[in-house]
Design brief:
Elements (H helix, E strand, L loop, with lengths): L11 H12 L30 H8 L4 H58 L12
Helix pairs in contact: 1-3
Keywords: Membrane, Transmembrane, Transmembrane helix
Length: 135
Amino acid sequence: MLLGVAPEVVGDEKKAVDAWIESNGLNQYGDSATVMYTGGTPLFDENTGATTDRYEYILRRHPDRPWLAEVETTKLLAVENAETQMDETKGQGSVAGVLSMLGVFTVVLAGVAILKMHQGRRDRFRYNPISSRDQ
C-alpha cells in the first residue's frame, strides 16, 4: 500500500458494506441506529466545510472491514450447506429406491395372490343345485 493514499471501498465491496449494515441493524453510516449527528450527517464538517464520501467514513470507522469477514463466512456456510444437502439427498435417494422396490414387490405379490384365488375358484368342483336335479 502506498503511503498517503487512502484505501477505498469499490464495486462489490460497496454491496457487501450495505448488506453488512442492513444485517447488523446499523444506520446508513455504519454506526448504531440510535446515533444522532450534529448537522444531521457525519459526512459534512461544519467547521471546515469539508465533505466525506459515505464509504470513506464507514471505512474510517471500521478499518478492520467486518463486512468482508461476513461475506467470507457466508460463502463458507453456503458451501457447507450445499455439501450437507448433497449428502442428505444421497441418503434420501437410497431410501426412496428401497421404498420403490418394496412397493413393486408388494404389487407383484398382490397380483399373484389374486390370480391364484381366481384359479382356485375356477377349478373347484361344481355342484348342481337341488332344484335342477331330475326327480
